[in-house]
């Protein structure tokens, strides 16, 4: 399970590279997430980074409250992304982090499961961001394989989260990334 930490680094690195690619005139472009433009999508991942610090420290949703609601990007979205990721990485790099329990809104989970969810969001939303700004949409094959294995048998949980669209049918011989995106409600 230690590799989930490395996969988080990889997924966050890819997402961060895409944040650097966002042009000044692209922050309000639509994304495959119907309710989010580029700004809102990046804000969501900054929000997750901020939450990660508190959640791996053992805080509950009630402890954190609404302190991360609203616009977390301010006047400098790129710096906001980097600062939030640095804080999250510091928290995730603490010794024994994977032995912890994280108190999520729906119940307690091992930290490894929580990290799997973070990797998933970074990988899929990295694709969303790439699509929105017209960048290379390739997801690292290691991330595709990991996220696919994590979720292929838990589609009900994906749908119940409200975070991903309905499953899209693709041919059985579709490539792994296309299958993963379809599982997450995206058309490649």
Question: Can you give keywords for this protein?
Answer:
8 helices; 188 residues; single chain; two-stranded antiparallel ribbon; globular; mainly alpha; 2 strands
- What is the total tally of β strands? 2
Instruction: Kindly report the spatial arrangement of strands forming the biggest sheet.
Output: 1-2
Largest sheet: 2 strands, antiparallel
pLDDT < 50 stretches:
none
Radius of gyration from the CA trace?
A: 16 Å
Shape designation: globular
Q: Measure the end-to-end span.
A: 29 Å
Number of helical regions = 8
Strand proportion, as a percent range, falls in under 5%
Structural class: mainly alpha
Helix content range: 55-70%
Can you give the mean pLDDT? 93
Structure notes:
It contains eight helices and two strands. By secondary structure, it is mainly alpha-helical. It has a two-stranded antiparallel sheet. Strand 1 and strand 2 form a beta hairpin. The mean pLDDT is 93.
List the helices and strands and how they pair.
Blueprint: H1 3-21, H2 38-56, H3 61-64, H4 77-92, E1 101-104, E2 107-110, H5 111-133, H6 141-151, H7 155-161, H8 176-183
Antiparallel strand pairs: 1-2
Helix pairs in contact: 1-4, 1-5, 2-4, 2-5, 5-6, 6-8
